[in-house]
Design brief:
Blueprint: E1 64-69, H1 74-90, E2 100-103, E3 108-113, H2 116-132, E4 140-142, E5 146-148, E6 151-158, H3 164-177, E7 183-187, E8 190-195, H4 198-209, E9 218-220
Antiparallel strand pairs: 1-8, 1-9, 2-3, 3-6, 4-6, 5-6, 7-8
Helix pairs in contact: 1-2
Length: about 220
């Protein structure tokens, strides 16, 4: 048998002899890391976004903002109504007057008594309980007592959300009396107030808290 066709001898352990390692033709060439062009040196380009800058190289200042809303905590209103009804049922001066306070649907409260004076007293009890529960009386639009059969009735509706008229009025106050550069935008039943300075936003909040408005305001989503 020719020498080049002879089988390699098997070792004593019965295993085939270890073959010599053949060097890869790519060894020493250096792999090109992802994101770097062949032949380029140094670290690959960073993917971290850079902050926007003005032409002069100064970073652009981002705006801060908050929303002016008029929200109603209905759970607290319900708590106040239940407390008012309990007090009216227990007080001596309401005995025999038919005085009551209860929900009328989901957006109004109905009060009744046998006289105009007593139904107004029912309203006073309800208002006191609302204040103690942290509900602004601006959220309660109470009507006038009216005679219905043998009793006097008084209805009060709940107000929630900024109307377009209220939002425009608040926006005008901010533009006329607030810091310069503050912007307002009506979005549904809310008003977005934005400015580059957080101090200006704090000044607007203080301004609106002292304004003579017919609607209860809250300031939310400060960002």
């Amino acid at each position: 048998m020719p020498a080049d066709l002879q089988s390699a001898p098997i070792g004593r352990s019965g295993n085939l002899p270890r073959l010599p390692t053949i060097a890869s033709p790519l060894a020493g060439c250096g792999a090109v890391p992802p994101g770097r062009a062949p032949g380029a040196r140094g670290a690959p380009p960073s993917s971290t976004p850079q902050h926007p800058q003005h032409a002069g190289g100064t970073p652009v200042a981002s705006e801060s903002s908050f929303d002016v809303v008029s929200k109603l905590d209905r759970q607290e209103v319900d708590n106040a109504l239940n407390q008012a009804a309990k007090e009216i049922a227990q007080r001596y001066d309401f005995k025999g007057t038919g005085a009551s306070v209860e929900w009328s649907g989901t957006e109004a409260i109905a009060m009744s008594a046998n006289s105009e004076e007593r139904v107004k007293a029912v309203l006073d009890v309800l208002q006191t309980k609302l204040i103690k529960r942290g509900v602004s009386l601006k959220a309660l639009d109470a009507g006038e007592p009216r005679l219905s059969g043998k009793e006097y009735r008084l209805d009060a509706s709940l107000k929630e959300g900024l109307s377009q008229e209220d939002a425009k009025k608040i926006g005008k106050i901010v533009r006329d009396e607030g810091p310069k550069g503050v912007k307002t935008q009506v979005t549904g039943d809310e008003l977005r107030v934005s400015a580059k300075s957080r101090d200006d936003l704090q000044a607007v909040i203080a301004l609106l808290k002292g304004a003579d408005l017919d609607v209860a305001l809250q300031f939310v989503n400060y960002r």
